[in-house]
Predict the structure.
Amino acid sequence: MVDHGKIYLSEHVMSVCARLGISVQPARVYQATDKAALERFFLTLREQLLVALPGYKGPDVHSRGKSPEQEAFYFLHELEQIIRQWVAECYHRQPHAGLRIAEVPGLDLSPLEMFAHGVAQAGYLQAPARPDLAFDFLEVKWRTIQHYGVEVNGLRYDGRGLNGYRNTTSPYSGEHAGLWPLRLDPGDASRIWFQRLDAGTWHELRWEHADAIGGPFSSEALAHARQLAAATHRFPDPRRALAGLLEEWGAGLAGSSAERRMALRDSDERLRLVLPSPGPEPEPPAGDVAGDDDDDSELDAPFPGEDEGDFYADAMETI
C-alpha cells in the first residue's frame, strides 16, 4: 500500500517490485486510514524525536519556532542516521499498546520483545535468501555492448565480464529489444554492473578513467562537473573537470550549499568503498574476445551493500 507520491510510483520502484513479485496497491487520496499503522509511526517519530532537533519546522506554521532556518540543520544522510539510532535504541525498546499476546492479557510488549516471542513460537524465517538481492534495487540502464565495452551517461565502462557478449544482440524483446540491462548505483558512477546470462553471475565494469580519479563519484557530481566545464571550456574534458572538482571538494573548497551536500555524500561513499573480495572469478567460456587488460583485483568485486551497515541487509526478514 503506497500513497500517490511520485517517488513511490516511479518507474524504478515499480520495476523493483515487479522483479520481486510485490504487488503495489495505491491508497485512496486523503484516506490516511488506508495505511494507519504507517501514519501512526510518523506521528510517534515527530513527537518523540523530530520536534527536539534544531531547525525543526513542524507540520504547520503554528508548530515551529520564530526562525528555524537560522538554527542548525542536517544533511539527509545525517538525519537518516539519527532516525535509525532512535528506532534501534528507543522505539524498538519501548512498550507499545498495540503489541499484545493472548497468554498475558494487559501486558504491553516492545517490538523487540514481540519479535522474540514470534521467533520462539514460529521460528526464524529469512526470505528471500539471495546474496545478489541488492542488485535488484539499482537503477537499470539499457545499452548495446560494443567491442570497447558499454557507454552510460557519456562514460565508457569495460571489464572481463563482457567477454563473449561484445557486439552481440540481447534476447530481450519489446521496448528494449536488442539492448542489454546494466545496473548503476547513482552514488558511485565509477563502476556499473552486468549479469551474464550463461552463468547468472554479476560482474563489475569500471569506467576507463576511474583509476585517474582515485575513488567513487556520484552521478550528481559528474553532471555538476560537466556543467561547470561547459561554462568555461569550449571542448570540456569530463575526466579533467571531475578530477578538479573532487580535488576542490577534498580541500574543503565547495562553493555553495549544494556543492557541500554533494561533496559530503561523495566523501561518505569513498569511506564505504573498500570491501573484501568474495573470491576469484570463474573462467569465461571459450571463444571470448581477448585483449581486455583488467586486473584480477577488479573482477567480481562485492556487490553494493555488503557492508554491515547496509540498508537492505535485513529488509526481507520476516517472522
About this structure: Helices lie at 11-20, 36-48, 76-89, 111-122, 210-213, 219-232, 238-250, 257-273. Residues 274-313, 315-319 have pLDDT under 50 and may be disordered. Strands lie at 125-126, 139-143, 150-152, 155-158, 180-185, 188-195, 202-207, 317-318.
